[in-house]
Amino acid sequence: RLSITSTLRSQKKRKLSGWHFGVRVCAWTATTVGVMNTILLIAAAAKFPVLDGIGVAYEGSCEVVDHWTTWLHILINGLSSLLLSASNYTMQALAAPTRAEVDRAHAKGDWVDIGVASVRNLSRIKWLRIVLWWILAVSSVPIHLLYNSAAFKTIDGGNFSTKIPLVNPPSTVTPDDDEYYVTMPSDTSFLPSLQKWWGQNYDNETLVERLNNTDCINAYGTNFVTGRNHLLTITTETGDQAKNETLFMVEGTTDYYDSELRYRWMCENDYNSSHTFQLKCATSTLKKHVDNWTINGRKIDYCLSQITPSHCELQFSVQILVAVIVMNVLKSVAMFVTLYQQKDATLVTVGDAVASYLDQPDDLTKGRCLMSRKDIKSWKLNPNEKKPNTDPMPVTFYPEKTTWFFRAASKGRWITAFTLIISAIITTASLLGMGTSQLQGDGASPFRIGFGSIDSRAFISTELPESGASGLISSILLANLPQAIASFLYLLYNSLLSSMLLAKEWSSYALRRKPLRVSHPHGQQRSTYYLQLPLRYSAPLLLISATLHWMISQSIFLARINTYYDGNPTEGDDMSSVGYSCPPILVTMLIGIVLLFVALAMGFRKFGSQMPIASSCSVAIAAACHRPQDDADAAYLPVQWGEVESEREDEIGHCSFTSGPVLPLVEGRMY
Question: Under 8 Å CB-to-CB from 228, ≥6 apart: which residues?
Fold first, then answer.
């Protein structure tokens, strides 16, 4: 009975400590996110109309849609960052080796990583953990490629006509231009309905708004006009009475996907048919001389704007939400399987490894107490032989004057991480430069386009389809590709910080005596809920990651446009593209630069002791744990690393972790 009670207590303690507790939190976090997504999908699909997998949660004010999409994307990026962090934690726990797996690797002259996320370990651990690791890794890809486009806004790219004064059309106007320039009454075939409406309603303040020139330019100086329809520009100048001219010119706006500006008529004071379609129009310049706004020689006094309901929509994709939920379920299942099927004691933290080797020292590393990670090559007989060199190899201790945190991670890890991060920053800067140049060329102010705001001048030009389902899918994948890249860079950055903090923890054992930080404590050992990054590092990093993902979602995003004419949707004129916004691109780049300099600043920190840097190398860790014979319980007591009493008869000293007294190492002495 006592044995059963003791076992139950041990199991309960195991559940509430170490990586088991961490994975439990991760599993329930992933499950909670999945349940939230499922409830939102079911509720939205039941309440709102869905056509071809696209639901409309709201139609109306663009300000309301902007408000909801902003908060939804903050929520989405927060949840996706939680999933990424939970996956990373569980993947690191899965890749941690057991003592038996480490011993097998050492017997072959090989080594494994301990205490950090490791791809290297995948070929050296059991197949079930490999499968679970890959499920967590692969399921992250669709989430980051799709999740941010689960909810999106669609704006109204309405078509309307603009009546513009024109007295004497230039001789260069050809019959082909009649669609744009009409001298009354030579062609009235497509105007009677508009003439009738304006005649009946021009003074109706509920249907028509009088705009001064500045407001008129602001309202119609965009390719996507919402909440307004046809426009009448008014001049006090008279036309040619002999021709009975009262309406001087009519221009119908082009479709939204036309390469030209729909509001170029505002700048057509010097029209000729040879250059109209290449005309640029800077509304900022017009507003500087707004009192002299002139179109084809006629000074505009004010405008009359037809007021219509806004047709912006908050839409959601059923297929995307289903895909995200399926990937979410896979993650949750993999985490719970990890929790309940992983019974073997794995060496998750460096404390786990030290405790294991103090309890059962590794004979293959005996006599190499000053071994560091960089000495691993001397441990092998030669690269082709699958066995280690077990001969003792004393070395003379000459402490380095300064040991930087840079040494904690391998050169390959630093080069890979910094190359990719710097490449991402340079790419972001290039996109910002090209976007700024493109917008300035179109007469727009790059930094006045708001976060996530759709502007036809700020579209990424590609050869991808724009209409229908194919246009939507291709735009979603392109818009979210940076999200997947950012997630990968987060994992690299996390691994880099973990390596440096692991080495810091390792080095601290040469400065003072303290208990080992292990997954499942015994004796005076300390429990730990984190693997290597303490909460003071992991929490800010998670917050920065979520912020970065949200900034990316506002920098490059799905731009979806539906076209309306006289308040009615036009068939087949929907468009999906990828828009960009310069302000969040700049903020994203600055965040990347700050993270880069934080890593550099960490790298230039100094270790407090002269202890050889084992990093995450299992061989170097094992070599430092050959305790004195009479210190059998060292693993369960507070320990310190330093010179201990040597069992050798010669003058060669020995250093190790021990619960007994230690001395500082002597410069010039062999150990």
Answer: 158, 160, 219, 220, 305, 306, 307, 308
Sequence-distant (≥ 6) Cβ neighbours of residue 463 within 8 angstroms: none
Query: In the chain, where are the structural domains located?
Result: 18-155+316-603, 159-310
Distance (Å, rounded) from C-alpha 582 to C-alpha 555? Answer: 7
* pLDDT tens-digit map of 127-147: 999 999 999 999 998 998 888
Q: Please tell me the number of Cα atoms within 13 Å of 44 on its side-chain side.
A: 24
Distances (CA, A) of 649 to 355, 621, 645, 652, 656: 28, 25, 11, 8, 18
Q: What is the largest CA-CA distance in the chain?
A: 124
Q: What contacts 345, CB < 8 A, 6 or more positions away?
A: 98, 99, 352, 519, 520
**DSSP β-ladder status, 228-234 and 302-307:** antiparallel
Query: Distance of alpha carbon 377 from its chain centroid, rounded?
Result: 38
490 token code pair? 């987060």
Best CA proximity match to 589, nearest among 577, 600, 597: 597
Neighbours of 670 (CB within 10 A): 13
Point out the least confidently predicted range of 27-31, 183-187, 188-192, 202-206. 183-187
Higher pLDDT, 336 or 450: 336
Distances, alpha carbon 258 to alpha carbons 157, 161, 253, 443, in Å: 12, 16, 10, 17
* DSSP bridge partners of 495: none
Q: Walk across the sheet containing 228-234 and list its strands.
A: 208-211, 302-307, 228-234, 161-164, 249-252
Q: What is the SS3 assignment for 608-624? A: CCCCCCCCCEHHHHHHC
What is the per-residue pLDDT across 422-446, written as a single tens digit (0 to 9) for each? 999 999 999 888 888 877 766 667 7
pLDDT in tens, 276-300: 444 566 776 777 777 888 876 778 8
Residues 323 and 342: their CA atoms lie apart, in Å, by 28
Residue 660 phi/psi, 5-degree rounding, is -90, -170
Q: Which residues pair with 568 in a beta bridge?
A: 565
- Span 388-410, pLDDT tens digits: 777 777 888 888 777 888 888 88
